[in-house]
């Protein structure tokens, strides 16, 4: 009973100062892949630190304050963090460099205070994201018999990862119009204003936008794409036929040019053979 009465003032003091390990709020921290992040550690100025234990599922590092004029000493106990963990000076905030996907998760700092002889706990939820590259926009369009042009725009980012949001921005009637989605379906009729659409992709660490996509370039003249493609197709076929005709004509011309040169030689060769046969004496029977 006496021991319980002795512990009661300490428990009341701990509750009054807010030093609780179970009801501590978790601080959300976002970071960029392959970059660095600092986990801030707040310690009252009038408190003397005994040591600090950093952990992430398992113990990560131990920190021992240095003597007057000396820096604190950090001992990394988790091999995965070797060479990537340091302390921000002044203070005991933890810096993690060259972040990987595996570094995402819960972190905890247990601060053992020498002055009050109690411990305070701070927790963090670290989320690692990749910086987004420029969005890629895929355009599909269809021209109906009524002359209306239906356009489908799809926005995507290579290796986007989690928590990516997409929005389409267009300028209409002097103000921005925003559509929250990775896909946008719209239509256009002759005489309508040709709008431009920009895709914006965002995640907790970056935001990037595509180049404006002018819808009018696909639909300004509904007959243009088909007529233009037919024209180029006929032109290509005509050039191919013309090339074949030129090659055939050149071949025939070469054959005709070589034939008169070869015929006299053959005839002369035959006459020489006849003369040799006539001049050759017959062997006597004796």
From TrEMBL:
Q: Which residues cross the membrane?
A: 234-255
Subcellular localization, as worded in the UniProt entry = Membrane
Q: How does it sit in the membrane?
A: Single-pass type I membrane protein
Ranges of residues in domain Ig-like: 135-210
The primary site where this protein sits is membrane
Q: Which residues form the signal peptide?
A: 1-18
A GO cellular component annotation in the UniProt record: external side of plasma membrane
Query: Which keywords belong to this entry?
Result: Adaptive immunity, Disulfide bond, Glycoprotein, Immunity, Immunoglobulin domain, Innate immunity, Membrane, Signal, Transmembrane, Transmembrane helix
Q: Which GO terms describe its biological process?
A: adaptive immune response; innate immune response; T cell activation
The UniProt entry, under PROSITE patterns, shows:
IG_LIKE
Q: Which domain of life is it from?
A: Eukaryota
Under PANTHER family, the record lists: SIGNALING LYMPHOCYTIC ACTIVATION MOLECULE (PTHR12080), SLAM FAMILY MEMBER 9 (PTHR12080:SF18)
Name of the protein in question: SLAM family member 9
> Gene encoding this polypeptide?
SLAMF9
């Amino acid at each position: 009973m006496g021991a319980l009465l002795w512990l009661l003032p300490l428990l009341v003091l701990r509750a009054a100062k807010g030093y609780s390990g179970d009801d501590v709020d978790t601080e959300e921290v976002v970071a960029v892949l392959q970059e660095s992040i600092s986990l801030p550690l707040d310690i009252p100025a009038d408190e003397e630190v005994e040591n600090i234990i950093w952990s992430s599922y398992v113990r990560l590092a131990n920190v021992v304050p240095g003597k007057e004029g000396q820096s604190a000493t950090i001992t990394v106990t988790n091999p995965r963090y070797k060479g990537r963990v340091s302390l921000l000076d002044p203070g005991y905030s933890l810096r993690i460099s060259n972040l990987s996907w595996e570094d995402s998760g819960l972190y905890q700092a247990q601060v053992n205070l020498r002055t009050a002889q109690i411990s305070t706990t701070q927790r963090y939820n670290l989320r690692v994201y990749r910086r987004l590259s420029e969005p890629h926009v895929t355009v599909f369009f269809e021209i109906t018999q009524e002359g209306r042009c239906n356009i489908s725009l799809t926005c995507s980012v290579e290796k986007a990862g989690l928590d990516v949001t997409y929005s389409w921005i267009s300028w209409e009637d002097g103000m921005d119009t925003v559509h929250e989605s990775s896909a946008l379906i719209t239509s256009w009729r002759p005489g309508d204003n040709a709008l431009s659409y920009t895709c914006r992709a965002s995640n907790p660490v970056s935001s990037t936008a595509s180049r404006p996509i002018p819808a009018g370039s696909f639909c300004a003249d509904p007959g243009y794409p088909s007529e233009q493609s037919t024209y180029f197709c006929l032109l290509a076929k005509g050039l191919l036929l013309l090339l074949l005709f030129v090659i055939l004509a050149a071949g025939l011309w070469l054959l005709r040019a070589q034939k008169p040169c070869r015929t006299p030689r053959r005839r002369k060769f035959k006459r020489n053979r006849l003369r040799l046969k006539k001049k050759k004496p017959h062997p006597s029977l004796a």
